[in-house]
Specification:
6-stranded antiparallel β-sheet; alpha+beta; cytoplasm; 267 residues; kinase; single chain; Tumour Suppressor Smad4; ATP-binding; 37% strand
C-alpha cells in the first residue's frame, strides 16, 4: 500500500504524531508532502506521486484535510484530529493505532462527499469541499448581492457576503453564520447570507442539481470569491459567479458516525 502523509508543520505535537504514524505504517510505502518532508528531514514525495497513493493520512485539523484535498483530490483521506473541532479529521489521537490497522487491513469503508464547481465568467475556479464564499471586496463594507436559482431571481441581499455550501460544509462557516446542519447523505446545496442588513433573511436549501448564480450589483464595488478559505477570484459589478455541484466527489475513510460528531462537537 502506498500512503501519503500531509500535516501541519508549525506544531511540534503534529510532527510527533507524524513520526508515530510513520512507525505504525512500517512495511508500507510512505510518501510525505514536500513541506512536511523538509521539516522531517526526509525525502519528499511529489504532488504527482501523492495523487497515485492508495490513501492519504492527514495530521492536524480540518484545514489540513482541505489542503490535502487540493493536493490530491481523488485519493481517499483518513484524518487524524489534532485541531479543535474535527468534522473532517475525525480520528482521535487515542484511536490512531486502531485506525491505521483498519486502513492497512482494508477494513475501513470509503464514503463519498459532494464538491462544488464554480466559474467567474469562463474562468473555472478550484473545486470546494466545504463552501464557496462571495464577500465584499472592500474590508468593512457590505456587499449587494443578487442570487438566482436555475435562472430565476430568488434572493437579494445586502450583507457581508454569501456562503454557498455542501452538506459537508454545513457544519463549518455556514453553521457559524446561522445556517442549518445537513446530513451529508442528503443531496443539496445551502445558501446562507453573512450578517444581512435585514436579520430575518435566512438560509435556503436547494436541490443538488441547481445552478446558483451570484451577481454583485453595487456600482464601483467588487466582490471576492473564496474557495474553502482560499481567495480565488475578484468579481466586478454585473459579473456572475456560477456555482453547481461538481461531477467529482471527495472520498474519506469512515471512522466516526455523523450524528456522534454532531453530539460531541456541536451540542
Amino acid at each position: 500500500m502506498r500512503v501519503g502523509i500531509v500535516a501541519r508543520v508549525d506544531d511540534p505535537l503534529d510532527l510527533q504524531m507524524v513520526a508515530k504514524v510513520i512507525r505504525l505504517l512500517k512495511g508500507e510505502e510512505v510518501l510525505l508532502e514536500p513541506g512536511l518532508a523538509k521539516k522531517m528531514g526526509r525525502k519528499p514525495g511529489s504532488v504527482q506521486e501523492l495523487r497515485k497513493c492508495n490513501a492519504i493520512v492527514t495530521v492536524g485539523g480540518d484545514g489540513t484535510v482541505l489542503f490535502a484535498q487540493r493536493l490530491a483530490p481523488e485519493v481517499p483521506i483518513l484524518g487524524i484530529n489534532l485541531g479543535r473541532r474535527g468534522f473532517l479529521a475525525d480520528v482521535n489521537p487515542n484511536d490512531v493505532r486502531r485506525a491505521l490497522q483498519g486502513l492497512r487491513k482494508g477494513k475501513l469503508n470509503i464514503v463519498t462527499r459532494s464538491r462544488l464547481a464554480a466559474k467567474v465568467g469562463e474562468k473555472e475556479l478550484p473545486e470546494a469541499l466545504n463552501d464557496i464564499v462571495i464577500s465584499s471586496g472592500v474590508l468593512g463594507k457590505t456587499a449587494s448581492l443578487e442570487v438566482s436559482i436555475d435562472g430565476r431571481e430568488a434572493l437579494d441581499f445586502r450583507c457581508d457576503g454569501i456562503i454557498i455550501a455542501t452538506p459537508t460544509g454545513s457544519t463549518a462557516y455556514t453553521h457559524a453564520a446561522g445556517g442549518p446542519v445537513i446530513d451529508p447523505r442528503l443531496e443539496s446545496i445551502v445558501v446562507t447570507p453573512i450578517c444581512p442588513v435585514h436579520p430575518r433573511q435566512c438560509s435556503i436549501v436547494v436541490p443538488a442539481e441547481s445552478l446558483v448564480e451570484v451577481t454583485p450589483t453595487r456600482p464601483g464595488r467588487e466582490a471576492l470569491v473564496i474557495v474553502d478559505g482560499v481567495p480565488a477570484a475578484k468579481v466586478l459589478q454585473g459579473e456572475r459567479v456560477k456555482v453547481q455541484r461538481s461531477r467529482n466527489c471527495a472520498r474519506f475513510f469512515e471512522w466516526e458516525g455523523f450524528y456522534r460528531k454532531i453530539k460531541e462537537r456541536l451540542l
